[in-house]
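To: structure desk
From: M.T.
Subject: fold request, one chain
Message: Could you run this one when you get a chance? Sequence is below, nothing fancy, just the single chain.
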Amino acid sequence: MYRTHHCYELRPAQIGQTVTLAGWVNSVRDHHGVIFVDLRDREGITQIVFRPEENAAVADISHKLRDEDVIMVTGRVSARLAGTENAKVLTGEIELVASGLTILNKADVLPFQLDKELSNEDLRLKYRYLDLRRPRMTRNIRLRHKITTAARNFLDETGFIEVETPILSNPTPEGARDFLVPSRLSPGRFYALPQAPQQYKQMLQVAGLEKYFQIARCFRDEDLRADRQPEFTQIDIEASFIGEEDIYPLIEGLLARMFKAGLDLDIPRPFPRMTWQEAMDTYGSDKPDTRFGMKIIDLGGVFAKTEFKIFRSTLDNGGTVRAINAKGFAGITTGQMNRLNELAIQSGLPVKTLAFIKCEGGEYKSPLWKFFTDAEKADIISTLNIEEGDIVFFVAGAWEMVSTVLGRTRLDVAGMMEINKNSTAFNFLWVVDFPLLAFSAEDNAWVAVHHPFTRPKAEDIPHLEAGDYAKVRAVAYDVVLNGYELGGGSIRIHEKDLQAKMFSVLGISAEEQQEKFSHLLDAFRFGAPPHGGLALGLDRIAMLVSGEDSIREVIAFPKNNKGADLMTDSPTKIDFKALREVYIQSTWKEKEKAKDE
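Reply: Done. Structure tokens follow.
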């Protein structure tokens, strides 16, 4: 037996008992020959005292202890001396007076200190097993476990069955590149790692299981960011004989259970709903952060008769003139303004600077101000509620570009003003009535906004039949929290002919449909029930519950921003023999040779 109790478990009620603890040496302090050790395990810290008068041999060994040594200690639980108690911890009234000590393993000098935050993320990831010893990281992993368990329990209670679906599968059109796995037994053929178990969960509905869920591992070969990894985890949910109005209370109940388990937070329900069009018009985002205002205001009415050439031309060509008022931000620095311009250009702004109006010292400062009539100036001030200390940002152009740029600017300004950072609100929201299709200028084709299995709204099917694709809305919905998409889903197509029509709109020929989707189309011939579902991003929910800014902080062994696992040095090169066994000829050596030449 290595321990009778965990660290952080002992209290004054155990005073006088002889117990055994095991863990890591968190710190060592020498007070005139009396050694104090803070011993740490997963649960917390207990103070150990080594006194020569208790056991000289044990006290002598204790002088050799260093941080992160793994030890087992036996001793008597005692009250701390008056005045030495630590009210900050629950074990602060007691200490363990050691009578026995076993060093289970010595630790070398660590590459970094565990009690200090480290800005070098690559170093943290290389020694992730050390990084996970930090109390914050241990807390994050345990919080993730708690909310995952809560989700499983809730879905089980509501009649859902957990079913595992294959990892080695066929490529699916989920909007990102697939990770491919060569097959040794079928030369020249490949598996794909699933971007989502979309088709399998629909097959389970055709199979009659009716209510399915899975804590599903998913894989997407795409560029990374703070809330994205090449492998991630979804809470995948699908049910038969279910409509859109059934989804909302189900998912709200699930999220309420998870946030209660993680934060002891009672989430108000039902969540408010907002159409996709309203979200884009008002916030410039399909996942709006509604914790603050700074809404986008349309100024088409203000400038309906303007003679200002840029705005006149924009409006005459069907574009929009819109603005946001960043109240109290007129003191923006040059550096901040330059940063906003850079981010706006990245978001599609066709000019080099954001147009603005500042109100400072009772004056309106802007290169544009002189071009407006007195009536336009009065309307601008009234419509945007401009007051002393405000700054207004304008964008003119096509609706989509204007919405995107102002939506990004809105969030960037909020970040600079630390509005988001200082907010403790959890603003849940449903975004509904997404477009079914979007036109890709790059591909010169219509593409699915969500995926090809999403159902069009019944009243919009005539638009689909007529080829008026821009007017077709989807029975799709996203659940959003504070500017993050927690999950998305839809009611699915369950009829063979409608699914085939959707494929043809996306440019998938009848031959390609049979090659890639014959299993799905065939299944729909044999009595597929109406069905739908949703997938929640477990990593993202865990990040928000933990109060972190990156999902890497809630994943035990994440990849870095280049998709590399620095601890195991993967991805790695594969030798010729292994490649030959799966019938792959490597060209990386030839490419490296060409570089050298």
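Reply (cont.): Residues 171 and 192 are 5 Å apart (CA to CA). Let me know if you need anything else for the meeting.
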